[in-house]
Specification:
Blueprint: E1 3-7, E2 10-12, E3 18-25, E4 34-39, E5 45-51, E6 57-59, E7 67-72, E8 77-82, E9 91-97, E10 102-103, E11 107-111
Length: 113
């Protein structure tokens, strides 16, 4: 069955870096566009970054220049490198396969001094 398993979250200080990973299984990963989404406390889930099957990327304005999405099709994994983290980056980060829609369980990121 389809699975998306996120990892790499944690508690960091403002300005720190984290790399999130999403390990996919149960489908042909290389054929699929993938995205990272964030849900902050009390807010709607929002797109952070997106990568197409051929590697084209899109970012939310709030993370441009600080976050990088990438994929390793040999490892069936999509990554989100997050640099210069800010407190507003706190939330649960979810991995998503766009079509057909499927979500991972999420990983918590807390940015606090």
């Amino acid at each position: 069955q389809v699975q998306l398993v996120e990892s790499g979250g944690g508690l960091v200080q403002p300005g720190d870096s984290l790399r999130l990973s999403c390990a996919a299984s149960g489908f042909i990963f290389s054929f699929n566009a993938m995205g990272w989404y964030r849900q902050a406390p009390g807010k709607e889930r929002e797109l952070v970054a997106y990568i197409s099957s051929n590697g084209l990327t899109t970012y939310a304005d709030s993370v441009k220049g600080r976050f990088t999405i990438s994929r390793d099709n040999a490892k069936n994994t999509v990554y989100l490198q997050m640099n210069s983290l800010k407190p507003e980056g706190t939330g649960v980060y979810y991995c998503r396969r766009r079509k057909p829609n499927f979500w991972g369980q999420g990983t918590q990121v807390t940015v606090s001094s």
